[in-house]
């Protein structure tokens, strides 16, 4: 997943450096299919009521272990209950209150 983000950054750099006329032209030069690119974003950028898939836990090993014990594992679908200074995430029947700093390290995507 992280490799995809790096590839996107590289293509945008090439797009700007060589002044290709369009992003689709830039991606076609490298035979990249836009349908296969997954865009991930931090949990803190979500809105209440939004459903997300957990992609990666980029936090420390101890924090990742604790989140997994509570049911917040990669690949699971969750719903955002509240997103203010802390994020309240509903995973199944469980609601988790996640600190804002920790929520920034959790990368998600929309289903």
Could you explain how this protein is built, in words?
This protein is an alpha+beta fold and 111 residues long. It folds into two domains: 2-36; 41-109, Ferrous iron transport protein A (FeoA) (SH3 type barrels, Roll), CATH 2.30.30.90. It is built from four helices and six strands, in the order ααββαβββαβ. It has helices spanning 2-17, 23-29, 61-69, 100-103; strands spanning 41-42, 51-57, 77-83, 87-91, 94-98, 106-109. The chain has a six-stranded antiparallel β-sheet. A hairpin with a 2-residue loop joins strand 4 and strand 5. It starts with a helix and ends with a strand.
What's the arrangement of secondary structure elements?
Layout: H1 2-17, H2 23-29, E1 41-42, E2 51-57, H3 61-69, E3 77-83, E4 87-91, E5 94-98, H4 100-103, E6 106-109
Antiparallel strand pairs: 1-6, 2-3, 2-6, 3-4, 4-5
